[in-house]
Structure formats: C-alpha cells, structure tokens
Write a structure and sequence with these properties.
Distance between the termini: 56 Å
Order of helices and strands: HHHHHH
Helix content: 40-55%
Number of strands: 0
Number of helices: 6
Largest sheet: none
C-alpha cells in the first residue's frame, strides 16, 4: 500500500488521481470526480484498494467545497482549481465513503491491520459528517401531542 499518512491524498493512487485532475481540462474535472465516486459507491461485492483510495480523495474534494469543509489539498492533492461541484455529489460521496469503510472494502481491510487505523477511520468519519451532517439529538418536548 503506497501510503505514507492518513490524509485523503497521502497515498500513491490518490496523488496520481490529483495529477490526472490537474492535467485535465477544467470542464472535465467534475465528470472525473463523479466517475470515481460512482465506481466506489456502486460496488456491490467488493471495493478494491485503488478505487477506495481514489474515492476518499474525490470525497475530500467535494467536502472541501462545503461551507463546513476543510481544504482537501495537501502537498499531494490537485493544485489546479476545480469547478464548483454540484450539490448532488455530496450524497454520492457519502455512499462512496460508506463503501470504503464497509466490510467489503480492501482499503478498510488493510487499514484495520495498521497502527493508525483509528485515526484514518476518524478522518473518513469527519469527511462523511461534513457531507451529511448527523442530526442532533432532539430536546425534550415542551408539550404532549
């Protein structure tokens, strides 16, 4: 696993994906991100490591455009600007991240064996929470219905 840290682009595959985005025309970048997310979200049987690593990077790019998102670009992320990504990519990114951490994911399987597994998983959870914020607990009702 050509991985050196827990960030979305801290592995060879996602860094290569970032390079591909930089080399693509601006109008092609959204379709590239969408394609990566669809491929990961659509895996019913098993999600391979390379599709998982690209999906985490793509989801981080979508989350970075959310008002509560953090910049996704480390030294290895895309350096060229991205177009404004449509809001429908958020739920597609959530579906892809759900597959990435599922028991049908080679990436999750490999991270489960690593010392930094919990930090990696927390990073994925943070991305997911930006894209689909959890509903806060309801306060007690003021009156009965």
């Amino acid at each position: 696993m050509g991985t050196w840290d827990i960030g979305p682009f801290d592995n060879d595959t996602a860094a290569d994906f970032a390079g591909d985005l930089d080399e693509a025309a601006l109008v092609e970048r959204e379709a590239m991100i969408r394609g990566v997310l669809k491929r990961a979200a659509g895996h019913a049987d098993f999600l391979g490591i390379y599709d998982g690593e690209r999906a985490v990077g793509a989801a981080a790019l979508v989350a970075a455009q959310h008002p509560d998102g953090d910049p996704a670009c480390s030294n290895y992320g895309p350096s060229a600007p991205l177009p404004e990504l449509p809001a429908d990519l958020r739920m597609l990114a959530v579906d892809a991240l759900d597959q990435v951490v599922s028991n049908r994911s080679e990436l999750a399987e490999l991270w489960a064996e690593a010392a930094n597994w919990s930090k990696w998983h927390q990073g994925i959870t943070r991305l997911r929470d930006v894209l689909d914020p959890p509903i806060p607990p309801q306060e007690e009702a003021l009156f009965a219905i």
